[in-house]
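Problem: given the chain below (151 residues), write out its structure.
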Amino acid sequence: MTTWFEVKIQYEKVMENGMNKRTKESYLFDALSFTESEGKCIEEVTPFISGEFTISDIKKAKYSEVFLSDEEAADKWFKCKLAFITLDEKSGMEKRTFTNVLVQAADLRDAVKKLDDGMKGTMADYEIVSVAETAIMDVYLYDNKSKRDNA
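Solution.
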């Protein structure tokens, strides 16, 4: 089971006009703990930020699936809420189970298309309840290469 952590950082960003602006950015990490996600964040963002930055928040994010895209235009992340529809055999009533999926896409239409493409293989009936753009800048998958090198 994948555990996702959303890490928010704050830093001073130099704008095109030369002014400094306090900026907040969110990143999503597949990690084993809060501490590991913080370390991965520091490792990943340090080369791209000049000056000091602080990690302002770390929280668990509940995503059951993340659909990545290789397209260059797909630079946004969309949170999609799905309802899986099942039939309760005892009562005969429909039961809806909700889950969140993260999709990398260029825009809202592209996100829905990529979500449908990613869900093609599923046997369960589902309904898209909502699709919303997130503030997530990038997603980092778990890399156990370092564990294999040490073994």
